[in-house]
Structure prediction request, 109 residues.
Amino acid sequence: MSSKLATYANLIIKYENQLKDVEKKTVEDGKKIVLMAESLSSQFRAVAEQVISQIFKEIDQTYSSQIQQLSKKYTEEREKEIEKIRKQAEKNVDKAVELVVSKLLEVYK
Prediction:
């Protein structure tokens, strides 16, 4: 009976040792999983930051392009208006010169 008892005791000790090994391996695997999760999280963060940076860059380029187009359009419209005003001023000057010349001619007649 004592050999059975010794066998049982040895089996219990072996079982407990195996349980400790499994627990240790589980803890190690858990640490590995946490480290992998942190690494993946860092990689995800880096990729997300790159994507967000690219999005902002594209938005800036789009708005910059639109601003340039609007500025160009405004400049062209302003130049057209200035040209119109200049032509009208030239006509007025021409009319004023004609009027002065005609009045001078009337005076000297």
Notes: The radius of gyration is 46 Å.
